[in-house]
Amino acid sequence: MQEAILDFHKQFSFQPELKQAGNFYPQSKFVVCGMGGSHLAADILKSVKLELPLFIHKNYGLPLLSEEELSASTIVISSYSGNTEEVVDGFHQAIEQGYQVVVITTGGQLLDLAKRHKVPYIQLPQVGIQPRMALGYSFKALLKIIGDENLWKEAEELALWLNPADYESYGSYLQEKLIGKVPIIYASERNQAIAYNWKIKLNETGKIPAFYNIFPELNHNEMTGFDVRESSRSLADNFFFIIIKDRDDLPQIRKRMDILERLYLDRNLPIEVLELIGDNHLQKIFSSLLIADWLALKTAKYYGLEPEQVPMVEEFKEKMRKAELE
Question: Exposed/middle/buried for 150, CB within 10 Å: 0-12, 13-18, 19+?
Answer without folding.
Answer: exposed
